[in-house]
Amino acid sequence: VALLDKNAERAEFIAREGIRLKDSAGERVIRVPCEADPSKVSPPDALCLCVKSFDTEAAMCRALPLLGPRTTVVSLQNGLGNAETAARFSGGRPVLCAATSHGSTAESAGVIRHAGAGPTVVAPHTGASPQHAESFAKLLLRAGFDAQTAPDATALLWSKLAINAAINPVTALAGVPNGAVPEREDLRRTAASAAVETESVARAMGIGLLYADIVSAVENVCRMTAQNISSMLQDVRRRRRTEIEAINGAVVAHGRRLGVPVPVNEDLLRRVLDISAASL
After folding, report:
1. What's residue 117's pLDDT?
2. How many Å apart are CA 177 and CA 180, to the nearest integer?
3. What pLDDT score was predicted for residue 276?
4. In sequence order, what DSSP letters do the residues of 42-69 get, joined into one string?
5. What domains can be seen in the chain, in order of their start residue?
């Protein structure tokens, strides 16, 4: 395993000091190679994209020297459109999508708090077969993760989108960790409405979600990651650009195109964009 970071100073720090991981078991330092120069990293079996949706193209361009003849590209990201962007730069290499329920908070450079565990689901996307997905899932299993595969990347992405559309903007606007959402009736109601609207848009596109009850799924994720600070709330607090346009913005765009009402997603999109504009 090696990390590629666009920030040379941070890459040097992590390479020197390691990653300090905090969780329920305590605190430990994990040593891992980290480089800012892709020419110093060997071509991997799997290139995992763990960047913001709006950084996908830049990350793929930066990682092009790493793509070997047997490299599989894995989009482990929020929102829609990332796998398609990755495929444009993959040179025909297989692209997988993965969605995880793990929650983590970046406290500072190289310091991560793991705030909740859950399954990671892998599905084949552009040019990938079920065997590619199975191979990557087995890699995660050997590393100690709860990993499984799904046959349909579109259903996986929209299922993850429904969870993100419900939790991320609600926690970002309220300034609370994930666990507060099912405990506060106002937040629970808003999150549930956002998830149901997303499911309605998916259904209008002929996409069935992986969850029988999307509202229960949202609340389960909140409880499994109760102490986690969502990535969108972290971005708002640090006055950084959020992924709201790739999450709720995607729901709104598809809803308008299909004539499916999504008023709660529209409101969440507007409000997060407003606070982001005020802080940038």
Report:
1. 87
2. 6
3. 85
4. PPPSEEEE-S-GGGHHHHHHHHGGG--T
5. 3-151 (3.40.50.720), 154-279 (1.10.1040.10)
The 103-108 sheet, strands edge to edge: 26-30, 19-23, 111-116, 103-108
C-beta separation of 84 from 111 below 8 A: no
Decide: 188 and 219 in contact? Cβ < 8 Å.
yes
- pTM (two decimals): 0.93
Which letter, b or e, does each residue of 4-29 get, where b requires 16 or more Cβ atoms within 10 Å of its Cβ?
bbeeeeebeebbeeebbbbeeeeeee
pLDDT of residue 271: 98
| C-alpha to C-alpha distance for 43 and 69, rounded to whole angstroms | 9
Give the pLDDT mean for 205-232: 96
Strand partners, 4: 35
What digits encode the pLDDT tens for the residues 43-73?
999 999 999 999 999 999 999 999 999 999 9
pLDDT digits (tens, 9 = 90+) for 125-180: 999 999 999 999 999 999 999 999 999 999 999 999 999 999 999 999 999 999 99
Q: How many other C-beta atoms can be found within 10 angstroms of the C-beta atom of residue 256?
A: 13
In angstroms, the CA 59 to CA 74 distance is: 12
CA dist., res. 100 & res. 15, Å (int): 26
Q: Is the pLDDT of residue 279 over 80?
A: no
Report the catalytic residues: 160
